[in-house]
Specification:
The protein has about 400 residues and is α/β, with parallel strands linked by helices. Helix content is about 20%, strand content about 20%. It contains 7 helices and 16 strands. The strands form 4 sheets. The chain has a 6-stranded mixed β-sheet, with helices on both faces. Strand 4, helix 3 and strand 5 form a beta-alpha-beta unit. It starts with a helix and ends with a helix.
């Protein structure tokens, strides 16, 4: 299970209410240095060069192993910004990759490497340590200093500009983020990409676990010339959603599914059915106790009466269905578990944010697995949208 403190940490990039700050603004990073990247083609110790093997579990309990192979010669790129995961001791994280950063790129990013070259910069984000102090009523010195609110954003922008100048070479690129990472990317897209020459190189932007606004009844809003994606062959468009169980819809205090501007509404683009309606969510779920950050929730017994497989991931074809819905004034990706008590496969999945006493935090939905629950669909979209972009060049 995940603590409420971690839940607060994940909120930073979504609400903007926690200051990205410490007493003195640090110097800018040099993204020419290999150690400033988690994942980058040719980097020694690339964090995305990890075991992504999955066990495919059918409804009848039959299991098979699915190997994974990254494509270092992929014709397009992916540029990723991770959510808040750092357990560093300062207010703003350092530039040393810890277990948290290594785990999150494995969970949310590395599988895309079968369709794109991967670029994932380290950046200095507000830490779990600082949030724990703030929630205890003893904020760390400098945690409210607005002078360093820009640190994480500046890092990502510097990494992006270095990538464009030295690595892109006219290639198409998919922008990928989750939670705080989506917030940073949304801000960067609006300021640096939307309507500018570099937009022609954007295959799509996958902004997961966030509430991106569009004008009501329109496909644009926050971004003026980058619409929501409506088909797998569309390019220069955005995919954004936040996931909730159909059995636990967004409550009145939900953190997702709505935006503050009354003239706008939250985007929901179903990666399993961009044109609308229901589609199978091709999940790749963690087979360990960790999702995107510290978690003590063990995975369920995938098949009744059988030990769980040893692979780091499991795929469960046919178990999950997703649909973008508008209910209660909220727009969100509604996930349904196609439970069948008569078959031996699990009828449940983990992924809820859980607070003290084991209480599910319904306002967060399935935030922890926004990426994992549709990972197979996202991989497919990087492939299909990448091909469509290349065909138009």
């Amino acid at each position: 299970m995940i603590t409420r403190t971690l839940a607060l940490a994940l909120a930073i990039g979504l609400t903007g209410t926690a200051a990205l700050a410490q007493p003195t603004a640090p110097a800018r990073n040099d993204y020419a240095r290999a150690e400033t990247w988690l994942c980058k083609p040719g980097k020694a110790g690339d964090a995305c060069a990890v075991d992504m093997t999955a066990t495919v579990i059918k409804a009848n309990g039959a299991m098979s192993v699915e190997a994974f192979q990254a494509d270092p010669r992929a014709a397009v790129d992916c540029f990723y910004v991770y959510p808040t995961v750092s357990n560093d001791k300062g207010v703003v994280s350092d530039m040393v990759a810890g277990p948290e950063e290594l785990n999150v790129v494995r969970a949310q990013l590395a599988r895309l490497g079968s369709k794109c070259r991967i670029f994932a910069p380290l950046y200095r984000q507000f830490t779990l340590t600082a949030l724990r102090a703030a929630s205890a009523g003893t904020p760390m010195p400098g945690s409210a200093d607005p002078a360093v609110r820009q640190v994480g954003y500046n890092d990502v922008l510097d990494a992006w500009n270095h990538y464009l100048a030295h690595d892109n070479k006219g290639r198409g690129v998919v922008l990928v983020g989750h939670s705080q990472g989506s917030g940073v990317l949304a801000r960067m897209i609006a300021a640096e990409i939307d309507g500018k020459p570099v937009q022609k190189q954007i295959i799509s932007a996958m902004l997961l676990g966030t509430s991106l606004g569009v004008d009501k009844g329109k496909d644009t809003g926050t971004f003026k010339s980058i619409p929501t994606c409506k088909s797998a062959g569309q390019t220069s468009c955005v995919i954004a959603y936040a996931t909730f169980r159909d059995t636990v819809p967004p409550p009145a205090n939900t953190r997702f599914g709505r935006v503050a501007n009354p003239a706008m509404e939250a985007v929901c683009t179903n990666p399993a059915a961009l044109g609308g309606g229901k589609g199978e969510l091709k999940a790749y779920l963690s087979n360990t106790a960790a999702e995107i950050a510290d978690s003590s929730a063990a995975p369920p017994a995938w098949v009744k009466g059988q030990p769980n497989p040893k692979t780091p991931f499991v795929a469960l074809p046919g178990l999950l269905t997703g649909e973008c819905v508008s209910k209660g004034g909220y727009n969100y990706l509604e996930a349904h578990v196609n439970a069948d008590p008569a078959d031996p496969r699990t009828d449940t999945i983990a992924g809820d944010v859980v607070g003290p006493g084991g209480q599910i935090a319904a306002d967060w939905g399935l935030h922890l697995i926004d990426a994992n629950i549709a990972m197979g669909n996202l991989v497919d979209l990087v492939g299909s949208q990448g091909k469509a972009w290349l065909a138009r060049q």
